[in-house]
Amino acid sequence: MLDHGAAPPTAERSRSGLTAPRPGSRALGPRLMRRKPVELLVAEGGQGEGGKLRRSLGMWQLTMISIGATLGTGIFVVLGEAVPDAGPAVVVSFAIAGLTALFSALSYAELAGTIPVSGSSYSYAYATLGELVAWVCGWCLILEYGVSVAAVAVGWGQYLNELLDGTLGVTIPDALAAPPGDGGLFNLPALLVVLLAMAFLLGGAKESARANTIMVTVKIAALVLFCAVAFTGVRAGNYTPFMPLGMAGVSAAGATLFFSYIGFDAASTAGEEARNPQRDLPRAIMLSLVIVTALYCLVAAVAVGALPWKRFAGSEAALAGIMKDVTGQSFWAVLLAAGAVVAIASVVLTVLYGQTRILFAMSRDGLVPKVFSKVHPASGVPRANTVIVSLFCGVLAAAIPLGQLADATSIGTLFAFALVNIAVIVLRRTRPTMQRTFRVPLSPLFPLVGFGLCLWMMGSLDRVTWMVFGVWMAVGLVLYFAYGMRRSRLATAEK
């Protein structure tokens, strides 16, 4: 059990022995800075409207959730967009993005072991930085998780076409395989993969985790196969000039590729369905990030060595094309495309899972409608939440081009990660006696470095992405002041 230290002076003991805000009390601070006690967050773990989430996931399954949500996105989809910015130095871009993710992962690991709940960084911010900041963080997570599902689903259709072309000699017509703006009318494959993930999620967390583990194994095997085959086509001349567009290009590519790392925190959204979250969540987060970063850098190094960097422009199925060029045979490309189809489906499944659990936590706190926290008693799954989120993401995937989605997701992710780094520092100062199963080394230095790296990478994104982010945040603030601020459970407890 965690030793949460003494109860805050502004709280009283409930019948369960945990803290809850006193009705009529304003002691939690100004309305926008209301904080939810850590004890209350933990006590509510798993409880929804009409049912409770089931604790059925072990460390290996949590690690596979994080790898499933991360591995595949950048390598199978975004690599073709990043190489034209950085050239062969895209390997450095992956390393920079991975280093940025590492500092934030340390902060996530500490907070996930201390506050093992479904809300991820939203809940961490609620306990440390106040309700308004928590809402902003949650709104960024909706952008991070929900929109990234759509972005990844768009890339899935590209590899599905490669697979169909290599096996049956047919492809889905452009009008039905690409969104408006990319030469099509409606991206049907993107919608289908989201609906397929929805079907798995409705079956239950344990069943979804089992399917995800199988898919993660397939995708790792596919990437190892790519490295083995494509290595035979590596030419030293393809690595020169190594940094043709300078450090600015490497930085810009790194900011785009950060999109590839957003899934490492997916395990933290499973805090209320993990059997031993205090022990397993920190381990799963760190282990998954190490595995993913190593594979990303290895595959990127082989890819740019086997194909001149200028030929990557406009390719969303770059790895399959490299396999075909190196071997001169379509068999290997088809095999890789099959692996990519499975890999990207795994990303859609696990990221969609994370989004539903974040909305579950926000709904339980009263900041979004109650329908998102209703749990089906038989399956232990928030069914209505899953269906609503899946349909929204599926329609988004079918209508929005990939590039715009990836960059918008990156900036929302970076902002949320920056807040997590600050939350670690705040919780260390306000609750120093809490038992922590993992501690960020050299705190507050490492969290401050993580915070600074997040801001630096946000600054590398283009003006259009910042405009989209600004509009997104403005909409979020309007919703908070119009709905969440008055309906939050902490607000109603104060009346």
Automatic annotation (TrEMBL):
<keyword id="KW-0472">Membrane</keyword>
<keyword id="KW-0812">Transmembrane</keyword>
<feature type="transmembrane region" description="Helical">
    <location>
        <begin position="439"/>
        <end position="458"/>
    </location>
</feature>
<feature type="transmembrane region" description="Helical">
    <location>
        <begin position="464"/>
        <end position="483"/>
    </location>
</feature>
<feature type="transmembrane region" description="Helical">
    <location>
        <begin position="242"/>
        <end position="264"/>
    </location>
</feature>
<feature type="transmembrane region" description="Helical">
    <location>
        <begin position="185"/>
        <end position="204"/>
    </location>
</feature>
<dbReference type="GO" id="GO:0015171">
    <property type="term" value="F:amino acid transmembrane transporter activity"/>
</dbReference>
<feature type="transmembrane region" description="Helical">
    <location>
        <begin position="329"/>
        <end position="354"/>
    </location>
</feature>
<protein>
    <submittedName>
        <fullName>Putative amino acid transporter</fullName>
    </submittedName>
</protein>
<feature type="transmembrane region" description="Helical">
    <location>
        <begin position="132"/>
        <end position="156"/>
    </location>
</feature>
<dbReference type="InterPro" id="IPR002293">
    <property type="entry name" value="AA/rel_permease1"/>
</dbReference>
<keyword id="KW-1133">Transmembrane helix</keyword>
<feature type="transmembrane region" description="Helical">
    <location>
        <begin position="408"/>
        <end position="427"/>
    </location>
</feature>
<feature type="transmembrane region" description="Helical">
    <location>
        <begin position="285"/>
        <end position="309"/>
    </location>
</feature>
<dbReference type="GO" id="GO:0016020">
    <property type="term" value="C:membrane"/>
</dbReference>
<feature type="region of interest" description="Disordered">
    <location>
        <begin position="1"/>
        <end position="29"/>
    </location>
</feature>
<feature type="transmembrane region" description="Helical">
    <location>
        <begin position="384"/>
        <end position="402"/>
    </location>
</feature>
<feature type="transmembrane region" description="Helical">
    <location>
        <begin position="62"/>
        <end position="83"/>
    </location>
</feature>
<feature type="transmembrane region" description="Helical">
    <location>
        <begin position="216"/>
        <end position="236"/>
    </location>
</feature>
<feature type="transmembrane region" description="Helical">
    <location>
        <begin position="89"/>
        <end position="111"/>
    </location>
</feature>
<dbReference type="Pfam" id="PF13520">
    <property type="entry name" value="AA_permease_2"/>
</dbReference>
<dbReference type="InterPro" id="IPR004758">
    <property type="entry name" value="AA_transporter"/>
</dbReference>
